[in-house]
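Predict the 3D structure for this chain.
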Amino acid sequence: MSNIRDRRLRIFGLELIERGRLLHGMKLLASNLEVGDESLLLETAISLIDSTDLHGVILSLLKVRKEIQTVEILDWIVDQSTCSLCRNSAVRDLIEIGKASDSILQECLFDIDSDTRAIASTALDGAQRLAEQPYLPAVSFRINSQPFPGSTGMDSLGL
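Done. Predicted structure below.
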């Protein structure tokens, strides 16, 4: 049923979580999320950390990651997943939304997956280059209606 989207299944998932059937409830909730469900989803996933189906829990979260893109959930996946593909997906999403912490990226430099190492390295290099660039505002200077030598030629300030 976790492949079917229906509000009634979300309600059933919430009832299952309330009754202690966390794994099945979380999977139904993940497939039928509504705004504000993210914290309950993460709490339920955390309580399933010793589950024999932790990978299934993480896959359920990844299946809806584009809808939620919650930094806490993605960070948790990177931290808890033993699957290199799942970690890679979470790291990619964190980088994509601009929320990959330096500590996660540094850790990913030693990941078993070469692709994860590469994207972390690229993200760290990009952040380093941005930090090293001096702030140069785009300003144009004109002398007698002619662009000043070396300026961009843009008359953004009307000078």
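The first strand starts at residue 142 and ends at 143.
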